[in-house]
């Protein structure tokens, strides 16, 4: 069991490392990189929606905060990208704490409305604070990242392959962190709050505090995703905080399987690729996409991840 | 020593007085019964004492300290455990996870060291696991430790909830109808457990409708009716108290 699992990990590792060598189309490579971004974005959203069980509509705001933070730091203050990237996450985290402090005391529906208002306000800020954000025009010409590695010198991230490896590293860090968090005492406390808040409190769990932690960690990774995106497409604008992202994230998380890591990863990849591949039939694109969404929700109400768990569980029961 | 004490405890629900200046106390080492007809405010008193409901007036003291208005989790961490009338467990977690969750906050919470599993956290988890196993063995459900809690039978739920309350080694355990809706064998088992734990030094404060259980188990009984304390004393005194008989049967 141990050895076979190790072999699987090695095989997956080789596959992931080899992708740039056997994917020749730069268009496909571009979609793969965006899948990576959306994996981080959707996983961070799933901490709040799936594990915490709160419907946050404020997630695109953190994506925007992360993007603007690192872009402005790199362009205006000449901060190296390796430092700007974590600061983007941390600033998103701080903003989440400020917003969460009043918002997380509210009930489920009020929380959704307040976070939605937060998204709209942040978008209005990006558009109107022209001296800082260049308003609706956005900031073009964002420099591509340069990463200084001790003893190896500066690595310039320029080609799609470079970006692919950078996002791969970020995805792995995100997945590992979330995996460890969910399987730790913190994850256990979060689940207990989602399942039965009164009982969790009775057992000594400070529900509000754990909500703040989860909301802030979710914002942190959304900030990282925003920062990477801006430096990848070399543009930063108010579109980063668009309501469109909320629908996209909800599709990825709910159809992927909220509260499962593998499900959300599959959801993020599938729902990045499907709309792209439907471009071959422009007339029917939205119809087919809608059809896929409806079918998924009918046949897999718990999402793809939930379906996988169900199959694994059934097999385990059958084999004893 | 007075462990838990309510002073003039009052609770109003929109003009309806659920608790009216109730004075009672539980001493260390006692098993105190709280009885009364339906709707007399027993569960409300538990909810006020544990911070689940805010109180309207009066004070709640725990080990000499005023805990009125504290949050539920703060009160829990001071060493006051409880169970619920309608069983509350986490059905989607395993029995062991339910048990571990019941103690982890009492062992102190450090977010980052929890996530990255420092040696200290690993040691605490091991200790918690050992204690959980001991309690599961105590009530004979240790073979179910890896099952989902939701798959257990009603009686096993009741036992699980009971030992979850014991998990953090609390000063006092508030049990809300431990013998309700379980079969006589299970009632007997539950009573044996409570008596044995009481001998080991645990203090219990029990709401119960089953008079046989109350009479046999409790060292002292408090009777509520319409939110007022109408009697207090040894079980045999209560049995013959005219006010209590009237409250239960009318005249």
Share of helix of chain B, binned: 25-40%
Structural class of chain A: mainly alpha
Order of helices and strands of chain B: EEEHEEHEHHHHEHEHEEHH
Largest sheet of chain A: 2 strands, antiparallel
Helix content of chain A: over 70%
**Count of discrete alpha- or pi-helical segments spanning 4 or more residues of chain B:** 10
CATH topology of the domain at 2-79 and 170-249 in chain B: Rossmann fold
User: Which spans of chain B of ≥5 residues are poorly predicted at pLDDT below 50?
Assistant: none
How is the largest sheet of chain B built, in terms of strand order? 6-7-8-3-9-10
Distance between the termini of chain A: 16 Å
Pair with the most extensive interface?
A-B, 23 and 33 residues
Tell me the series of helices and strands of chain A, N- to C-terminal.
HHHHHHEEEHHHHEHHHH
User: What's the CATH H-level homologous superfamily of the domain at 2-79 and 170-249 in chain B?
Assistant: P-loop containing nucleotide triphosphate hydrolases
Biggest β-sheet of chain B, characterized?
6 strands, mixed
CATH architecture of the domain at 2-79 and 170-249 in chain B: 3-Layer(aba) Sandwich
Uncertain regions spanning at least 5 consecutive residues of chain A: none
List keywords for this structure.
heterodimer, A: 320 residues, mainly alpha, 14 helices, 4 strands, 76% helix, B: 251 residues, alpha/beta
């Amino acid at each position: 069991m141990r050895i076979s699992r190790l072999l699987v990990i090695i095989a997956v590792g080789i596959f992931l490392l080899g992708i740039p060598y056997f994917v020749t189309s730069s268009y496909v490579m571009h979609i793969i990189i965006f899948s990576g971004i959306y994996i981080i974005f959707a996983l961070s959203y799933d901490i709040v929606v799936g594990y915490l069980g709160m419907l946050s509509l404020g997630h695109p705001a953190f994506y925007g905060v992360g993007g603007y933070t690192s872009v402005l730091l790199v362009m205006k203050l000449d901060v190296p990208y390796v430092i700007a990237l974590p600061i983007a996450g941390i600033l998103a985290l701080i903003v989440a704490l400020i917003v969460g402090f009043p918002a997380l005391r509210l009930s489920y529906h009020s929380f959704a409305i307040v976070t939605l208002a937060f998204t709209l306000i942040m978008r209005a800020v990006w558009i109107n604070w022209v001296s800082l954000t260049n308003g609706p025009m956005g900031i073009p010409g964002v420099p591509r990242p340069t990463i200084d590695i001790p003893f190896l010198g500066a690595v310039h991230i320029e080609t799609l392959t470079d970006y692919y490896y950078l996002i791969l590293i970020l995805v792995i860090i995100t997945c590992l962190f979330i995996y460890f968090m969910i399987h730790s005492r913190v994850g256990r406390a979060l689940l207990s709050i989602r399942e039965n808040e009164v009982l969790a409190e009775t057992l000594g769990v400070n529900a509000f505090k754990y909500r703040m932690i989860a909301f802030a960690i979710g914002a942190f990774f959304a900030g990282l995703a925003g920062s990477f995106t801006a430096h990848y497409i070399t543009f930063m604008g108010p579109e980063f905080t668009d309501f469109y992202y909320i629908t996209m994230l909800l599709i990825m998380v709910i159809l992927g399987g909220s509260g499962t890591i593998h499900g959300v990863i599959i959801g993020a990849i599938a729902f990045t690729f499907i709309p792209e591949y439907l471009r071959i039939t422009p007339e029917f694109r939205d119809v087919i996409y809608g059809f896929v969404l409806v079918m998924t929700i009918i046949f897999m109400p718990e999402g793809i991840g939930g379906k996988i768990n169900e199959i694994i569980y059934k097999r385990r029961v059958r084999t004893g | 020593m007075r462990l838990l004490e309510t002073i003039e405890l009052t609770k109003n629900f929109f003009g309806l007085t659920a608790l009216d200046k109730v004075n009672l106390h539980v001493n260390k080492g006692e098993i105190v019964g709280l009885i009364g007809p339906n709707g007399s405010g027993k569960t409300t008193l538990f909810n006020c004492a544990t911070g689940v409901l805010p109180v309207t007036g009066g004070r709640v003291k725990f080990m000499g300290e005023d805990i009125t208005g504290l949050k539920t989790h703060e009160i829990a961490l001071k060493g006051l455990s409880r169970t619920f009338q309608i069983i509350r467990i986490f059905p989607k977690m395993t029995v062991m996870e339910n048990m571990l969750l019941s103690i982890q906050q009492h062992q102190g919470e450090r977010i980052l060291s929890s996530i990255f599993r420092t040696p200290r956290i690993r040691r605490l988890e091991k200790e918690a696991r050992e204690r959980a196993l001991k309690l599961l063995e105590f009530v004979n459900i240790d073979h179910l430790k890896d099952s989902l809690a939701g798959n257990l039978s009603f009686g096993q739920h009741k036992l699980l909830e009971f030992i979850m309350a014991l998990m953090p080694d609390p000063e006092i355990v508030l049990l809300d109808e431990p013998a309700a809706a379980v079969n006589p064998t299970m009632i007997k088992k539950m009573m044996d457990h409570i008596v044995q734990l009481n001998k080991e030094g645990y203090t219990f404060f029990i709401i119960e409708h089953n008079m046989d259980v109350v009479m046999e188990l409790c060292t002292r009984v408090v009777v509520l009716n319409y939110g007022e304390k109408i009697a207090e004393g040894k079980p045999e005194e209560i049995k013959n108290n005219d006010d209590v008989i009237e409250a239960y049967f009318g005249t």
